[in-house]
Every structure is written in structure tokens, then in C-alpha cells.
User: Fold this.
Amino acid sequence: MINRNVSQTQNKILLSVLIPVFNEEETIRELIASVMGVSSELFSMEIIVVDDGSNDGTRSILDTIPGIRVFGHQRNSGKGVALRTALDHATGDVVIIQDGDLEYDPNDYAAVVGPIIRGEADIVYGSRRLKKSNVQHSALRFFIGGMALTWLTNVLYPGAHLTDEPTCYKAFRLELLKGMNLQCKRFEFCPEVTAKALRKGIRIAEVPISYFPRSINQGKKIGWKDGIEAALTLLRYRFCKINPDQ
Assistant:
């Protein structure tokens, strides 16, 4: 566990920001600018972007932005595969997941990774539910995409006590996440890491974050089928005889 008194040293930890993207030409430039604009006494950053086979102008835009590391897939393979590619290239002490749209505010990084840097946690989730001023999706998407999966997690894994399991902002010590031997392909990254962490007995801390939801018409890609796959992933890792490291 990182345990550094950052107030008494000029050394910063390195934060790896992992950004999987697919057809985000409308938002990616603004998103990267927002990430690069984050300044913190706690960390410096490396920004790793994986273009998951975009067929719009996303890759062309990425190739014009200095100061980031860009990797690509020839075809669209899914968010989980893109994150695994990004993780292979991460060199930081701590990693945080960032979507390629504008739903989440990178200015929340310090709040999310702070407990890890201070040695208070190994995994931290940024909870959209803990900030009451946040606007949520439609009632159906809010329930199926968030509350139902969170409820199922807490039922299946006693002691979890989470408020927002499927949140994008998840931060981990690098070696811990790499040690999970991820198998995810699409959006089951979230339930896989949650299940494996809880089966290992690792407490997941939560902090409030801002949230600015976008609609399907604005490019939202996750759907109800992904919610079902997430639920099945939580069930599989809870009841099947699977080593949490596999």
C-alpha cells in the first residue's frame, strides 16, 4: 500500500489515466484537454489512450494531441479489451479509469486517488450517488444501470456496502489491478474487478464525484444487455469455483 506523507515531500506519485475510446470525435479533444488541465500536489500523470477501432475521426484527432500515449486496435473489440491493452502499458503507482466522453470531471481525480496515496485504501470508487446535486439518467436507466447492479453486489458480497458499483471512476494500486488477470471484453470490467476485489476481502472505499449524464443520442453506448451481462458476471464470480486471480 502506498503510504506517503505528501505534505512533507516534493515527490509525487505517478497516476496512470487509462482512457478507452470508440467513436468519440465530438468529445475527445475537450476530454483530453480537461485531463491535461488537472493539477495536483499529490500526483503527476501519464495519459494512455486506446482507440478501440474507431471508424470516425477519433484516431486522427488523437494523433494531433501531444503529451499522450496512444495505442490502437484494428477493429472494435470492446471497452474491457481496450482497458486491458491500456493496463499493459501503464507504469504508474496508481491507475484511474476515464471514459472518453464528458460525463465525468477529471478535477475529481484528487478526491478519488487521495485515499490510496494516503494509505487509507487500495481501491476507491467515485460514487455518483453520494453527491446529491448530480443529475441522473432517466428513471429506468438509473435503476437498471446503477441501483439494481449496486443492490445485487451488496446482496451477493456481504460487507460491500457500495452506493455506485458501475461508476466509471475506479482507482487501484497498479500492481493490484494487474494481479487480477482480467478477462473482460466489453462493459463487464466493472463487475469483474468489483467481484474479484470483494472475494479477496479487499474493502472498496467510495468518495463523492460529479456526474453529467449523456443520452444515447449523444453517444451513450452501454445498454440493457450490458446490464444483464454485468449481473451475470457478478453471479459467476460469486458462485462458480473461480480463483479471484483468474
Notes: Residues 139-156 form the longest helix (18 residues). Confidence is low (pLDDT under 50) at residues 4-9. The chain is about 35% helix and 15% strand. Residues 123 and 172 are 5 Å apart (CA to CA).
